[in-house]
Write a structure and sequence with these properties.
The complex is a heterodimer of chains A (491) and B (459). Helices cover 40% and strands 18% of the residues of chain A. With 491 residues, chain A is α+β, with helices and mostly antiparallel strands. Chain A folds into 3 domains: 293 residues, no CATH class; 111 residues, no CATH class; 59 residues, Arc Repressor Mutant, subunit A (Orthogonal Bundle). In chain A, α11 crosses α12. Chain B has 459 residues and is α/β, with parallel strands linked by helices. Chain B contains 15 helices and 11 strands. The chains are: A alpha+beta (491), B alpha/beta (459). The complex binds zinc ion. Zinc ion binds next to loops of chain A.
Chain lengths: 491, 459
Amino acid sequence: MVTTPESSVAARAKYEPVIGLEVHVQLLTETKIFCSCSTRFGAPPNTNVCPVCLGMPGVLPVLNRRAVEFAVLAAMALNCRIHETSIFARKNYFYPDLPKGYQISQYDKPLAEFGWIELKQNIGKKIGITRIHLEEDAGKSLHEGFADATEKTAIDLNRTGVPLIEIVSEPDISTPEEAYEYLTLLKEIILYTGVSDCNMEEGSLRCDANISVRPRGQKEFGTKTEIKNVNSFRFVREALEYEIGRQIEVVESGGKITQETRLYNANEGKTYGMRSKEQAHDYRYFPEPDLLPLVVDEKWKAEIAKQLPELPEARRARLVKDYGITAYDAGVLTFSKELADQFEAAAQAAKNPKRVANLVQGELMGRLKSRNLEIGDSPITMQGVAMSADLVESGAISGKMLKDLYDLSFERGKDFGAVYEEEGRPVQSSDTSTLEKIINDLIAANPKQVEQYRAGKKTMIGFFVGQVMKASKGQANPQVVNELLVRKLEG
Amino acid sequence: MELNLLTIDAARSAIQERKTTSMALVESFYARIQKEDSAIGAYLTLTRERALEQADRIDRLAAEGKPLPPLGGVPVGIKDVMCTRGVRTTAGSKILENFIPPHDCTAVARLEAAGAVVLGKLNCDEFAMGSSNENSAFHPVRNPRDLSRVPGGSSGGSAAAVAADMAVVTLGSDTGGSIRQPASFCGVVGLMPTYGRVSRYGLIAFASSLDHIGPLAKNVKDTASVLRTIAGRDPMDSTSADVPVPDYVAEIDKPVSGLKIGMAEEYFGDGLDAEVRKAVEDAIQSLAKLGCDVVPVSLPHTEYAIPTYYIVATAEASSNLARFDGVRYGYRAKNARTLAEMYRRSRDEGFGAEVKRRIMLGTYALSAGYYDAYYLKAQKVRALLTQDFDGAFRKVDAIVTPTSPTAAFQLGEKANDPLAMYLADIYTVTADLAGIPGISIPCGQTREKLPADWLADSW
Ligand SMILES: [Zn+2]
């Protein structure tokens, strides 16, 4: 349940939220960033470890070049400037799941800066990306799931040293909706590059939000809070919504915002301040002396750029061009890389790619949405869509039949092809004698409409087609119906 | 044949020619350690089993008439800041009193691969922090030349073991003079190679940008022989340099005639003991007689070296030593009720006074609001010091200086005066800061013995 504090609409209108997002993305390298341990998720605790990621005395980090390449790919996809030289730095703090007592990150000389993502809802608005830097992940503290968990905390260091990029946005985001859109687009782009699976449940994408409010027109930022521990984009939006209301209420009632870290409780839909003791950190950053400066020269950059796949924006443009579909259709079809890939494969195999596009958008997406399904969960595959498109194209089935078959697919959880077989490969009726009888009956029953048609109101044909289709339970071939009708009405 | 006095080549040849065995050599060194070390305290852990296994391997090679590797059968000692797989490695600290590493230090592994026999782990100042070896959590080391005096530090055990014939050669580590100063106090040769020449993998870090592993030996040739073995690129250490390793042993027979020797007045100022000055000046005279050109050089930023060093070194140390938190290994305080208390008490009880002092200094130097004034400033001065040397080495091939302002001092003499102790490194820290190599070669004796330091350009 989301319970937004009762700040009045009028009070809300006086203030402008200022939001910046920090997103951590795990990179899908085979091995960790500074050692050769596997990054595989879900291994038994403390099995993907070695002296280096355990922080044993005397061990040294050796940078995984693949992690650098992945980070550069993401930075390129997000329109960043890649710095030829960047510096790793130590972020010092004590925590049981941080074996070295510091995290190797980047600080004042990050890998990349000055990127942006362009929003679609608010056309032309760009959200700046301040920086993207490389760092290592920490381990996990486990408080349950083992013997004497009530008295002890267990540490799993499998995740320690998994490569991360942190993507920091400018405080350009003005509403929770924009935050949601930014995150959705960011995830889409990262997924396209293939450098991360962006799986929030497994923690391969994590988001913190910085939020403040200021009276509209004021230049200075208000005091910000940081919301951590938000594990879905929807919750980010909800948490921001709540926090904006809370901050406005505090300011309106003459109070001051405390700069603090707050946690979002998704069950209550509220944010709570952490005890200040837990957040007063001086990380004492300094350049990591165990690593040389990271140099990504022009040659390497060019090699990496070759691995950059077509990004959503470019793909949309190409889909419009190649398949003759509208920009809107292209947008729907590139909702995810997976969908776009499947679509293109199916469309290329089909007789009329445009029809495939229309079916996906008109028949498939709506059914998925109304059932709260992701495209990956669709019973009808893109091959199924392509098959149905070809059947309509050849006149074997009518549009109405296709709709019915789609409904059956969703009911039975089976692909279009299977349902089509189960239904005995239905064919729309082109049997003129049956149709002629229906038409004759219709003409006899509707003299007024016949008169109107014959007087020149040609659009009346639609009425007759509809009636024939209805009478034939959608199984009539509309083209044949049309021809017969014209002949009878004119004759 | 006096087995304990053999050099590397003599020991290897004796085994190769079956005049003795590696086993006999090892036993003779253990006998010597048994007899002498209770008074000196150089060894913390003996690795008898590992040593005998390696000796057996070498003896079988010799018996089969196969050529022994370059250090075949040579008994060596390892400063206890270098990790040895399966062998307790303490860094001279209570916090690692029972720590058994799962990994080997690259330099140690390379020595063993070249046939060396590791006798044991050598005492040192805790985490290599100290100049007298009195900061060992276990017991101090005494100078074999005079048991009332310190052997220097932090590689006091490494220097004393060589001086007392308890190892043919040893490995030490040098962060601000920790190889060269004890070498000079004990009258042996100690070499700190160029930064990056020898892998630091497995060396328990004190100050990463200043830490070096290097050999201590009775003569320059053995020193060269060990360096040749341990030097070279290591994929496990990103800061190890990919520069070919020359045959140092072949190089040392070249005449010194024609070499340009620099003499820097900054190293002969106030605070230099008169006898030490005389010995070093005499040595320089001898070099001149051998055909060296003695050229005055200026190293104007030398006076800032000690404060610069203590900021950079302690800053890095404060971070490097954060991993000793009682969570995964090492000492953990009993009965702590909260995580914070476990951290605080484990570290308070596990670390000695000097280590805690340096962690606090370093933490302060890196703190918000102080970073620019201390750490950043120190890095700038460090660059200036490096420039000093760059300039000097455009004029000369090497610079000769005293290693330490005094000869070995008495145990307890400076133990309660950290600042006086820090000044013992005044002539050595500059090379660590500049990343250049330095070697301490005995060149005379005061009542006890005496030190000279050669600084040379990188590589
Ligand atoms: Zn590892």
